[in-house]
Amino acid sequence: MFSLSCLFFVHTANALSVVATVPVDSGPAFVAYDSAKGEMFVANNGGGTVSVINDGTNAVVATISVGTNPIGIAYDSAKGEIFVANNFDDTVSVINHNTNAVVATIPVGTSPFGAAYDSAKGEIFVANSGDGTVSVINGTNAVVATIPVGTNPRGVAYDSVKGEIFVANSGAGTVSVINDVTNTVVSTISVGSSPFGVAYDSAKSEIFVANNGGNTVSVIGDGTNTVVATIPVGTNPDGLAYDIDKGEIFVANSGGNTVSVINDVTNTVVSTISVGASPFGDAYDSAKGEIFVSNNGDDTVSVISDPIAGSDPAGNDVTIHHPPSLGNDYYHHFAGGVNLNGKSFDITKWGVTIPQQVLKIGQQDNFTFKIYDERGGSTVSHVGMYIHFKGDASVANSDTFISWDKHDGMKISDGEKFFSDIAVSEHHDDNFAYVSIKFTPQKTMSDSSILMRMWDDKLASVDLPINGAIIIVDPNAPVPVKQVPTDQYGDYHTLVSLLDSDGYQMPPILHRIKDGSDLGPAVDVYWIYDKGVDKLVMVETFKGGEIIGDTIFNLQKKPAGPVLTDHDYVYIPVQNNRQDPLQEKSVMVQEELKAEKLLESMHVIVK
Fold first, then answer.
1. Is the CB of residue 233 less than 8 Å from the CB of residue 251?
2. Is 598 helix (H, G, I), strand (E, B) or coil?
């Protein structure tokens, strides 16, 4: 059932070395990797520009003018844009990576410094070193929140597993942890002196912080938000980059003209590499297995080779890779591998079953798959969702599929026209690829599994079945209940209260049946309430959970009642027809009641 290309990863010994030195503009600072184009974007704080380096030729292919003293930089993989923090003019420049042109300039806080991209929210977090805040920029290039943090915030990193932003407060010796849902600081962690750069290690779920004043790197466990290790490195460490392939952290030591390489398992320095003058920032190129280090003191970028691929005598790549996963990777479990219409499911085994989800004809559905690959989200090359099987869940038995491919785009096989309005999108960060498949069901489908076929750019592939995942029903027809759903109401009083608050009349059946004992001693009753289609389903089961049957009732809205004023008498909103004797009489009665209520409020007894 599975197409597995590996169970382990082969690392071969390769000497770390500088393989190229690339001249750029004045004062290169932080660096960001554009995985879609295979380019490095370097913010040059002395030149007011961004240099674009092609990672195939190691040559500058464009120089883009931005604001004054650009320092921080982040890549938005969903929009294909580069965000540049201009420290002297309190703005962020937005560059389109296809045209290499500035398409927007966004005012932020005072002296913006570091920046990071939150792939789950599609937002950019910018540390404003001059006023101790973080600006949050959304997909429309608007600042949607400003969050107070510590003094002089510098580096920023995004924790994709926990949905948190880690901000190094250089003036306070702390790291602020921001929840990206509430945009509030949920923890403050003491680290070393003058923390500067920050990097997230997705394999270990740890944050590495360069302490510029202490010549150390603090390691924070994101589960406890405590420092679990302190590692001596070179002089005045600034920027950090995480090599997801080798499990190594590269630390740019501006005072020593070196880069320290930390093994993230042993938390020790395993190599020290000489680079240019005053190395400032660095970034990892997952496609080439290289580290790009900006040398602020001599206006160059050093390219360090850190290959992991093995080779045979003929020079062919014989490295073995794990296939992509939805959380079922042997060494890297994570939650929320599948999200359907806002509801997340954990896929932590090779063959899993999720509570059956009922999809409805005419209502759009959105599957989002969060996919991990050991070499980063950019390496995921193909994702296919197969459904409607004639036999076991295998590709050969499916006649319906929707797929996304990095090179070929979207492909659809839907001969029976189950779906309409099909759309597929993909974005990724350093750790995960996110593939969303949207469609609107047009026909019913009986109990169906989902088979996910995924591979990366090395063709490490997997077929992963998610058993009994969906059923498609006609909302205007009886619902064929196959199992007790997760959104049932077993409590009678809760159900009645909910119907009343939603403005429905109580169906007569609820006056007769309140629980399973009204049907028999061995019976339980559950209720499926769907106000979207004005229906209530009573599911009858045995005590052991076996379904006996189901009965559907149409719900009716309560009739509109009279409108009451402050004095609780009836207000007639429509002018009465005095030519209608019955209506005239009715109004007269209402006026009498009105007068009586008014007199009672004045404590006048009416006889």
1. yes
2. helix
Pick the closest to residue 30 from 239, 214, 241, 304 (CA basis): 239
Q: Which two tokens stand for residue 269?
A: 């320095």
The H or E element containing residue 390 is none
**What does the DSSP 8-state code read for residue 151?**
S
Task: List the beta bridge partners of residue 455.
Answer: 382, 461
Q: How far is CA 569 from CA 22, 562, 575, 592, 602, in A?
A: 84, 9, 17, 10, 14
Q: How far apart are CA 431 and CA 325, in angstroms?
A: 12
Question: Distances in Å between the alpha carbon of 301 and those of 67, 82, 282, 522, 524?
Answer: 21, 19, 9, 75, 70
pLDDT, tens digit, for every residue of 369-411? 999 887 788 889 999 999 988 777 788 888 899 999 988 889 9
- The single residue listed with the structure tokens 């009986």 is 446
Residue of 114, 105, 100 whose CA lies nearest to 41: 100
Interatomic CA distance for residues 144 and 146, integer angstroms:
7
- Cβ neighbours of 276 (radius 10 Å): 20
Residue numbers of the chain with a pLDDT score lower than 50: 1-14, 311-315, 479-481, 563-576, 578, 604, 606-607
Cα distance between the two ends of the chain: 87
Strands of the sheet containing 300-305, edge to edge, are 17-23, 300-305, 290-295, 279-285
482 token code pair: 């196959």
CB atoms within 10 A of CB 452: 23
pLDDT tens-digit readout, 478-507: 544 455 555 566 678 878 888 888 888 888
Q: Which amino acid is at 531?
A: K
Quick one: which of 227, 334, 285 has its CA closest to 57? 285
CA distance 209 to 126: 17
* Residues ≥6 apart with Cβ < 8 Å to 336: 327, 344, 345, 346, 370
